[in-house]
From TrEMBL:
<feature type="transmembrane region" description="Helical">
    <location>
        <begin position="133"/>
        <end position="151"/>
    </location>
</feature>
<feature type="domain" description="ABC transmembrane type-1">
    <location>
        <begin position="63"/>
        <end position="253"/>
    </location>
</feature>
<dbReference type="GO" id="GO:0005886">
    <property type="term" value="C:plasma membrane"/>
</dbReference>
<dbReference type="GO" id="GO:0055085">
    <property type="term" value="P:transmembrane transport"/>
</dbReference>
<keyword id="KW-0812">Transmembrane</keyword>
<feature type="transmembrane region" description="Helical">
    <location>
        <begin position="184"/>
        <end position="210"/>
    </location>
</feature>
<dbReference type="InterPro" id="IPR035906">
    <property type="entry name" value="MetI-like_sf"/>
</dbReference>
<dbReference type="InterPro" id="IPR000515">
    <property type="entry name" value="MetI-like"/>
</dbReference>
<feature type="transmembrane region" description="Helical">
    <location>
        <begin position="62"/>
        <end position="89"/>
    </location>
</feature>
<dbReference type="Pfam" id="PF00528">
    <property type="entry name" value="BPD_transp_1"/>
</dbReference>
<dbReference type="InterPro" id="IPR051789">
    <property type="entry name" value="Bact_Polyamine_Transport"/>
</dbReference>
<keyword id="KW-1133">Transmembrane helix</keyword>
<comment type="similarity">
    <text>Belongs to the binding-protein-dependent transport system permease family. CysTW subfamily.</text>
</comment>
<keyword id="KW-1003">Cell membrane</keyword>
<protein>
    <recommendedName>
        <fullName>ABC transmembrane type-1 domain-containing protein</fullName>
    </recommendedName>
</protein>
<feature type="transmembrane region" description="Helical">
    <location>
        <begin position="110"/>
        <end position="127"/>
    </location>
</feature>
<feature type="transmembrane region" description="Helical">
    <location>
        <begin position="235"/>
        <end position="253"/>
    </location>
</feature>
Length: 263
């Protein structure tokens, strides 16, 4: 009995340590005080400023860059990851195990190592760093997660359906488009959502590949803003909105996973 109480107490303490900072930010997003922790009364002025263009131009630019990069990277990595998953799935058993292990390495690897490696790669090829290199870097680290999301759908798929389509006169591309893609679509959607979320959240890889041309994403803007000794007040409602959005996306992913297990 005592062990169970201690275990639950430890769990609640851990959850409090993890989520109390986020809760504080959410609470103080409803006051217009410039300093976090200084409550000056309930107000939605920061939210109004966020949606009516009252923010700093650099912050607005960072938000647009972040979502543009995330959308492009998630779309490209979903396409590439889905094709890679199909290719890996159709390999022989030993080769498939090797490729699955290789695909898992970038996910287990530290982000800072990935960022440094990509930085050295771009420098060695003389590629000017900026928007393009950040997009390429995000595609690189997001694609393995898409592969991981699509692979279970391929394992559940009836392989005879694809072969039957070929026997009925469909070309491999037609069978891929009309048979395989509809079967793995839930995994592709989950992979896209995951890649989009990871891209928005990334800092370590971005900071090494963003260059010095003035390009900023939300993560690099917050880092630079914090180094100045404070945070822009509009970051509080923005962080709240992003947290709620990510939370909803995670709930959707988990619900889709539960539905897939039942099917």
């Amino acid at each position: 009995m005592m062990t169970r109480i201690l275990a639950k107490g430890y769990l609640w303490l851990l959850l409090a340590l993890l989520y109390s900072p986020i809760l504080i930010i959410m609470i103080f997003s409803f006051t217009e005080a410039k300093v976090l922790g200084n409550w000056t009364g309930f107000s939605t002025k920061l939210y109004s400023s966020l949606f009516t263009g009252g923010m700093h131009h650099s912050l607005m630019s960072a938000i647009w860059n972040t979502f543009a990069i995330a959308l492009i990277a998630a779309t490209a990595s979903t396409f590439l990851g889905s094709l890679a998953a199909i290719g890996i799935f159709n390999l022989r058993s030993r080769a498939r195990q090797v490729m699955n292990f290789t695909n898992a390495i970038p996910m287990m690897n530290a982000d800072i190592i990935t960022g440094v490696s990509l930085f050295l790669l771009f420098v060695s090829f003389g590629i000017s760093q900026g928007f393009t290199t950040v997009v390429l870097a995000h595609i690189t680290f997001c694609t393995p997660y898409v592969v991981l999301s699509v692979m279970p759908r391929l394992k559940k798929m009836n392989q005879n359906v694809y072969e039957a389509a070929l026997d009925l006169g469909a070309t491999p591309f037609q069978a891929l488009r009309k048979v395989i893609f509809p079967e793995i679509l839930p995994g592709m959607i989950s992979g896209f959502i995951l890649a989009f979320t990871l891209s928005i959240d990334d800092f370590a890889v971005t900071i090494f590949t963003i260059g010095n041309e003035g390009l900023e994403t939300l993560s690099t803007y917050i880092y630079a803003d914090a180094r100045k000794g404070g945070l822009t007040p509009e970051l509080r409602p923005l962080s709240t909105i992003i947290f709620i959005t990510v939370l909803v996306l995670l709930i959707v992913i988990n619900k889709r996973a539960e539905r897939s297990k039942k099917e």
